Amino acid sequence: MANPANDPNFIFNLLERMEEDYELRESVWELFRRGILSWLLHDGQLKMLDIVENTKHHEILIFCSRQLGKSFYIVIHALMHALTRKRALVRIFAETEKQIRDIVDDNLQIIELLAPPGLIDRKKSDSRWHINGPLGRSQIRLGMLAAAHVDGKRGGNATLIILEEGGFSPSDSYKKAIGGTINAQLLRSKGKLAHVTTPSRDMNHYIHTEVLPKCELNKALVRLDIHQNPQLNEEQIRIAKTRCVSDEEWQREYLVQIVKDPVSTVWYEFNEKLHVREMKIPSHAYWLVALDFGGVRDKHGLLLCFYDFERAKFCVYDERFLQTNTRTEIIREASLEMEKVVTDIDPKTKQNRWLNDNQSPYRVSDCPGQIMVDLNASGFYVSTPEKEKGSWEANINIVRVALKNEQIEIHPRCIHLRSTLQYGQYTENRKDFQRTETLGHLDLGSALGYGFRAKNLNNPFPKHLGKSRFTHHISKEEQENQTALEDAFMPKI
């Protein structure tokens, strides 16, 4: 059955009916008293509610289009939370006082008309609302994200915090507010933090560099573009597009896309649709492992790769992404565990897949000299990548060119590498990679460059695929064809 809230006039029609229908009014009031309010949300808003309520992770990112009704969703969710939990405290933050007032006042004014008298007790003077539910009194409080105002909230607690349009707050103050105050308020309650915003104009915003990759990896991300708003028709969407001053604004504000900056984005050419695909283990290929040791400061990236000779594609089959200060022996074991797919015996050929002539596993690793000596001494043989003068930039550019020419393919399981290529940024002076908590020092991107430059382009297929006329039946016709070919290309003596 269609969701009645998908009708843009649903609430106004409901208010009119409640004035005339006593039983309907009592039913609506009873739903409010029980905190059952999801029926007020259209399909797009229900997706927001679902991910916040049902994900197991502490932090959630909702990227949504303008005019999707995110402010109405925020108020409804805050009310539901306050009505169904004992002594709940919901905090809603926005960048400015005007923003937060507009968010709550405009939407709560309508909701108060639906709710039973006395359920919502407005305390305008101190930016809070008392919610008198069946489990006692809970609260909804408002706050400004600007660091100076957030600092004034230090020491408080909350069971749910919702941040509205954080993408339009200055990145540094937003990060400071979350790290210094907001996360601490959820510590004892084990509550959740929900970012509800459109993408930022600032490509290097904290939401893009830290929150987005982390939430995407944790499957705590939902994207809702304008086409997922059931209250808009195609003509209204067309008008919205014509009113945008640029295609970039349309993509960011309504299609919820991060518009990449070719100057600050490291691997600008990476495209999930072009470069990510399922792949099978090839019958013959030269495999390698590319490693980037991070040491005590950065993370450690490991990639299992092979070169598909028939299709001329460099393929990344698996990855490992290990935390800073991981011991060398653990890194070694992680690589060996990843390599099992090609070092274990193939039940069909009775050989391992590293390849034809029992070649040893080939590994290329950027690591300190003493670590390389220790690894080789333990039987874990590694080679040094190309690191001549200017190789850092060359390492980046060779991958960018390969991505542009669709020469690189990545298995969907390599989620950290995909995030690195999608969101990796330069520092402001473009002399280094920007470090982030989630992506580290873009270590997997470096490993990809080492692996791509070290790939073996030789033909991995043995002559006659290892078969012999003495051990395999060859038909008379095939013999004649082979003889004709040999005669045609045999050098004349």
Low-confidence stretches: none
Total of domains: 2
Distance between the termini: 84 Å
**Percent range for helical residues?**
25-40%
Which topology of the largest domain does CATH recognise?
A: Rossmann fold
Shape: elongated
Strand order of the largest sheet: 3-4-5-2-6-7-1-8
> CATH architecture of the largest domain, please?
3-Layer(aba) Sandwich
Say how many strands there are.
13
CATH class of the largest domain: Alpha Beta
Please summarize the sheet with the most strands.
Answer: 8 strands, mixed
% residues in beta strands: 15-25%
What is the mean predicted local confidence, pLDDT? 86
- Estimated radius of gyration: 29 Å
Give the helix tally.
17
Structural class: alpha/beta
The CATH homologous superfamily of the largest domain is named P-loop containing nucleotide triphosphate hydrolases
- One letter per element, helices H and strands E, the order comes to HHHEHEHEEEHEHEHEHHHEEEHEHHEHHH
